[in-house]
Task: structure prediction
Amino acid sequence: MTTNEEIRDQAIAHQIYLLRYQAQIVRKVTEILKETEADIKAQLAQINTESRTQELEAQLVGIKALIDASWAAATKELATELSALVEYEAAHQDAVIQEATPVRLSTIMPAPDLLIAAVESKPFEGKLLRLMTRSPNESSAPKPCNTRMASWHSITAKHRPW
Result:
């Protein structure tokens, strides 16, 4: 097996691992958000339908606080996982190259702090990571959207006859 084939095979195996890891993180964050949903439903169940406006506004403030807390918890969990992944990925890629090449190469791995800073400053699909994890209650938070679908719709809209 050539070096390129070995690196390719390891990259494929690693991608499968990353997809499993992604599913695990999605489950964790979803669980955080589901717990918040249950708390919100409990608060809504306590609302007296004959309540006055002030009481409803007080409930709304409490619900917004729950949503903000769940986004903060989800963001913290995501940041923790991504920080660990940064360190792992740097070491893994170095190990793949070292194992696959027939000669010993000296490599310099970037510091984890440098990698984290790069992730936090470079846009993903045109948005910074920190903007993607803001609570929906924050006025400057972008609305979640699938930019690929939005792009597809804008492209196909140009070619529609109607």
